[in-house]
From TrEMBL:
It comes from Ktedonobacter racemifer DSM 44963. InterPro entries: BphY/WalK/GraS-like, HATPase_C_sf, HATPase_dom, His_kinase_dom, HisK_dim/P_dom, HisK_dim/P_sf, PAC, PAS. This is histidine kinase. One of its GO terms (molecular function) is phosphorelay sensor kinase activity. Residues 235-287 form the PAC domain. SUPFAM superfamilies: ATPase domain of HSP90 chaperone/DNA topoisomerase II/histidine kinase, Homodimeric domain of signal transducing histidine kinase, PYP-like sensor domain (PAS domain). Signal peptide: none annotated. The lineage of its organism: Bacteria, Bacillati, Chloroflexota, Ktedonobacteria, Ktedonobacterales.
Amino acid sequence: MMSIQDKPQDSSPERNSSPTQREARLRALIEHSHEVSLLLDDQGTILYASPALTHVLGYLPEEISGQAMLSWVHPLDQSEASENIASLQAHTRQKLFTTQRYRHKDGSWRWLELRAVNKLADPQVAALICSLRDITTLKDAEIEQQRLVEESDLAHTHLLTVLQQMPAGVMIAEAPSGKLLLSNDQVRQIWHHSFPEANEVDKYDRYKGFHSDGTPYAGYEWPLARSIRQGESVREEEITFLRGDGTRGIMSVSSAPILNTQNEIIAGVVVFIDISERKRLEQLKDNFISMVSHELKTPVTSIKGYTQLLQKHFQRSDEKQSLYFLAKMNYQLDKLTDLINEILSISQLDLGMLNLRPKVFDLVEVVREELESQQATTATHKLQLKGVEKLTITGDCERIGQVIHHLVSNAIKYSPGRKQVCIEICHSDQAALIHIQDYGIGIDSEHFSRLFERFYRVDEPLEQTFPGLGIGLYLAHEIIQRHQGHIWVESQKGQGSTFSFSLPLQPHTAIAKETSHDNH
Ligand code: ADP
C-alpha cells in the first residue's frame, strides 16, 4: 500500500527548472506547435490564438482576437457548433471532440478536428481551451473514398436493375472456374424454377441441353463454357433444352468473354431467350407453305399434261398460231413448276425433311437429260456439253438434277442477248466437277461470299430487272453440301459467270473418255 510519504518523487527533468523557465517552455511548446491553441471566453469569443492559426486558417492571431469563433464555422456545421459551445459552457470540465469546417482567409473551407475542455471554473484559467488540427487532406480522401463507394454501389444497383428488367436470361460466371457470379430472374423463369446451378464448367452438363441430332451438350460445349475457356463469342446458338418441369423448349443463346485490361478472360456472360413459341409458329408456317406448294403441284402437272395433249392435237392439224400460244403456255408452266419445286424444297429443308435418296447413277446421263429438256424450251440459247462421256457417282440424282437445272436456267436467264452456255463435266482423282459457263451480265466479286445465302439477290439496277426469289443458289449450296461436295462461282461483271460444283467420287467410279456434243 502506498502512503502520502511513499508518493514517488517527480522524476522528470522539468523538476529542476524554475517556474519562469517552465512557463517559457510551455509557451514555446504552444507557439511552435502545428496545432492551433485557442482560449475562448464563456461566450465563445476568442481571447487567445496561437501562431499556428496563420498556417491553418491564414489569419494572424491578432486579426481574430475578440471575435466569435462561430463566425468561421461552415453554415452546415453552425448549429452543431453552437450546441457544442453551449453544452461545453454548461458543464464544468466537459470535454469535446468533434470535426467541423472552418473558413480559411482565402475563402476555402478546411476540415478541422476540434478538442475542447471547459476550464471556466478554474480561476487561474477561466476559459474554454481548444485545440484545432487541420485534417482537410484526410477528410477529403475519406469523402472521395465514400463517393467512390457510393458510385460503385449505384453502378451495381443500376446493373442489377437492368439485368432484372432485361427480357432475357442473363448469367455471368467467373473464369476459369465457371462459378456463377450473377443471374437474373428470367433465368429461373426460362428454366422453370428448379434451375440447376453449377459452380464449375465441368458441371454445366447439369443444364440439360441437346444438339439438333439429339445428343446432349457436354459441360464444356455450352456457349458460356466456350466463352470462358476459349474466349469464343457465340451468337444465337439454338439449343433444345429440358426445363425443370420436364417439358422441352428451344432457346437462342449468345455468349461472350469478359476481358480485363491485359486482355485476360476474367469472366463470361451469357444471354438467352426462349424461342420455343417462335419456332412452333415457324414450323406451322413451313408446314403451311409445304402443304400449299404440294397442293399446287398436282393441278399444275395436270395442266402441263393437257397442254402437251393439245400441242399434239394442233401439230396434227398444223395450227401454227395455237401451237405458238401453247408453246408460250408451256414455257410459263415450266417457270411455275420450277418456282413451286424451289419453294417446296426450301420448306422441306426448314422442316428437316430434305432427305437424300442416294443411289449410283451416271452424272453425264442426268446432265444430258436436263440439257435436252431445257434446250427444248429455249430458242435463244445453245447449250453445249463437253467433257467425259460417263461418270458414275453416288448421290440423290433428282436433287443433283435440280441443282443442274437451276444453274443452267440462271445461266440462260442472266445472259440475255448471248447465245452460248457451256457445260463441262470433268473430274479430278477424288471428285466429279461440273462447270456451267455463261457470257452474260456477270457478278461483282464483292457479292461472291453472300450469293449462296438464302434470299440473297444482287441489289443493283440491272439485276433487279430479272425475276427471282434468291433461293435457288441457297438450295443448290445445301444440296451439294449434303453430298460432301463444294459449289463456287467465278465471274467478272459484264463478262459472264462460271458456276461450278464438285461431288466426291467413289473408289470404283466408272469414267468414260472425253467428248463434246451439242444439245439442240
Ligand atoms: P434468283 O431467283 O434471284 O435468280 P438465285 O439464288 O438463283 O436467285 O441467285 C441469286 C442471285 O445471284 C441472283 O439474284 C443474281 O443476282 C445472281 N446470279 C445467279 N446466277 C447468276 C448468273 N449466272 N449470272 C449473273 N448473276 C447471277
